[in-house]
Design a protein that fits this description.
binds iron/sulfur cluster
């Protein structure tokens, strides 16, 4: 269930096998650039917390990724964000990870941002490239997803289709409403 913990040393593998495209693409950018802008840190940090990552593991995860290039930047930007996410800084409230609706409709990402929903915020060429990278190789499947995005504007349905292709089973309503729902369902599909 959603209360299970995840650990530092399994994040790479979980990301590859069970994370939704929005979070996997933040993860990939972090691994590649060793940097995330504000909303990327916030969205991914909240998601990892909801997935069961402890604050200490979250600190270490982001520190490992960043310290390669810039330890001061970690202290100034990431450390605060992580404490904030876990209710230890700023407003000190328990924050929830964002739902798809919010990721799709709020804080539209700029060119160097990593947050957002690939189905909503990527152009068709980049979306297709991402889907192929993430294992969707059949042309009909790709076209079906693109059609849901471009014609139906059904981004969560496009993500539901991606889920069906990847895990061989449908989500309720064939649609995704929360990145952590995607993760829990993917873990269940793989482990069963
Ligand atoms: Fe993430 Fe939701 Fe978009 Fe899927 S539909 S990629 S879970 S924001």
């Amino acid at each position: 269930n959603g209360r299970e913990r995840i650990h530092l040393n399994e994040i790479n593998e979980l990301s590859r096998n069970m994370f939704p495209p929005c979070m996997r693409s933040i993860h990939d950018r972090l691994r590649r650039d060793h940097h995330l802008k504000h909303y990327g840190r916030l969205y991914y940090g909240l998601y990892l917390k909801a997935a069961g990552l402890s604050m200490d593991d979250s600190m270490e995860f982001f520190r490992n990724e960043l310290s390669i290039t810039n330890p001061e930047k970690f202290q100034k930007e990431y450390s605060y964000t992580i404490r904030y996410i876990y209710g230890k800084a700023g407003k000190r409230v328990q924050l929830s990870a964002y739902k798809c609706h919010k990721i799709i409709n709020d804080n539209a990402p700029g060119p160097n941002d990593t947050h957002g929903c690939p189905f909503r915020h990527f152009d068709v060429k980049n979306l297709k490239a991402l889907l192929v990278r993430y294992g969707v190789n059949n042309d009909n499947d790709l076209e079906e997803i693109v059609q849901k995005v471009t014609e139906d504007k059904n981004y969560t349905g496009a993500c539901g289709k991606y889920f069906s292709i990847k895990y061989g089973q449908d989500l309720p309503d064939q649609s995704v409403y929360h990145p952590n729902q995607f993760f829990i369902a993917a873990r269940r599909a793989i482990n069963n």
